[in-house]
Design goal:
Layout lengths: L4 H28 L10 H55 L6 H22 L2 E2 L2 E2 L12 E3 L6 E3 L10 E5 L2 E4 L4 H4 L2 H15 L5 H5 L1 H48 L3 H25 L4 H5 L1
Antiparallel strand pairs: 1-2, 3-4, 5-6
Length: 300
C-alpha cells in the first residue's frame, strides 16, 4: 500500500483533532465538577442522576415538613404549660379562700383575678401558628373560642361538638403524623363553665368556704386532663425526633450516592488532563515533522 504525504497529514490532523476533543471533555469536567455536562455523553449517569436527585429533593421536603410539625407541637406544648399554670393559680386561690376567715369583699377581689385568668385561658385556646388556629382540629381558619367580656362573669363559648379531627403532615415516605391535640381535652366547655360558676360563688356574699372548696375536685380533673393530653403529645414528639434522625441519615446517604454518580474525582481528572496534554504536545511535534511547510524542508 502506497502511503502519500497527504495521507500522513490527514491522519495526523485527525489525531490532533481527537486530542482537542478529549482535552475539551476533561476541561468541562474540571470546570463543572461533573462527569457529564450533557445527557448524551452518558445516558445511564443522566438517568440515575434524575432518580437520585428526586430522592434528595424528597428528603429536603420532608425536613421542611418537620419544621412545620415542630412548630405546631412545640406551640401546643407551650400553650398547655401556660394553661396548666393558670389553672394551678386558680386552684391556689380556691385553697386560700376556702376557709371562713375571708369575708365577702376579699372573695370578690379574688373573683376579679380568677376572671382575668379565665380570659387568659380562653385566649390561649385561640392561639395561632402561621395564621392557623392550632386548637380547632382541621378547621384551622376559624377561631375555636368566643369570648364575651360584656357579661359578669365573661361568657366563653366553645363549639359543640368541637372540631378534633387530626391534622396530618407527611414526615417520611408513607408516614404521616398528627400534629394537633384534642381541644376537647384541653379547652372543653365544662372548663369555662366551672370557672364561671366559681366566679359567681366568689362574688356571692352568702357563700361559705366549703362552697368555694367544692371546686377543687373539678379543677384537679381539668388539670389532669391537660397533663394527660400533654403526655400524649410528648410521646408523638419523641417519635418525630426519631424520624428526624432517620431523615438526616437518609439525606447523607442520598447526597453521597448522587455525588458518586455525578461528581468527578478531581485528582484523577487532573492527572488525565496532564497526560492528555503531554500526548497532545507529542502529536503536534510529530505533525510538525511530517507536515513540512516548504519543499526545501521536505527534501532536507
Amino acid at each position: 500500500m502506497r502511503v502519500t504525504q497527504s495521507m500522513l497529514a490527514n491522519s495526523n490532523l485527525r489525531y490532533v483533532s481527537q486530542g482537542y476533543e478529549r482535552l475539551g471533555v476533561l476541561q468541562d469536567q474540571i470546570n463543572s465538577g461533573k462527569k457529564i455536562t450533557r445527557p448524551s455523553q452518558d445516558p445511564v449517569i443522566a438517568m440515575n442522576g434524575i432518580r437520585y436527585r428526586t430522592q434528595v429533593q424528597e428528603v429536603e421536603q420532608f425536613k421542611r415538613n418537620l419544621g412545620e410539625v415542630y412548630s405546631w407541637m412545640e406551640n401546643a406544648d407551650a400553650v398547655m404549660d401556660k394553661t396548666t399554670s393558670a389553672l394551678q393559680r386558680i386552684r391556689e386561690l380556691v385553697v386560700e379562700v376556702s376557709n371562713d376567715t375571708y369575708n365577702g369583699n376579699q372573695r370578690a377581689s379574688v373573683a376579679e383575678e380568677v376572671k382575668q385568668l379565665q380570659e387568659h385561658i380562653a385566649t390561649l385556646g385561640n392561639t395561632k401558628v402561621n395564621n392557623k388556629y392550632i386548637f380547632n382540629g382541621t378547621n384551622t381558619l376559624q377561631k375555636p373560642i368566643d369570648i364575651d367580656t360584656s357579661t359578669n362573669p365573661p361568657t366563653i363559648t366553645v363549639p359543640n361538638p368541637i372540631n378534633n379531627n387530626d391534622v396530618n403532615i407527611e414526615v417520611s415516605k408513607g408516614i404521616s403524623v398528627a400534629v394537633n391535640t384534642d381541644p376537647g381535652n384541653i379547652f372543653p366547655q365544662g372548663l369555662f363553665d366551672d370557672i364561671s360558676s366559681l366566679i359567681t360563688t366568689l362574688q356571692t356574699p352568702t357563700s361559705t368556704g366549703s362552697d368555694v372548696g367544692n371546686y377543687l375536685t373539678q379543677l384537679d380533673s381539668h388539670i389532669n386532663s391537660i397533663l394527660s393530653e400533654r403526655s400524649e403529645l410528648g410521646a408523638r414528639l419523641n417519635r418525630v425526633e426519631m424520624i428526624e434522625e432517620r431523615l438526616m441519615q437518609q439525606e447523607i446517604i442520598a447526597n453521597k450516592t448522587m455525588s458518586d454518580n455525578e461528581d468527578i474525582d478531581f485528582e484523577k481528572v487532573i492527572i488525565d488532563l496532564k497526560t492528555q496534554e503531554s500526548v497532545h504536545r507529542a502529536a503536534l511535534a510529530a505533525g510538525a515533522r511530517i507536515i513540512q511547510p516548504t519543499l526545501m524542508d521536505f527534501l532536507r
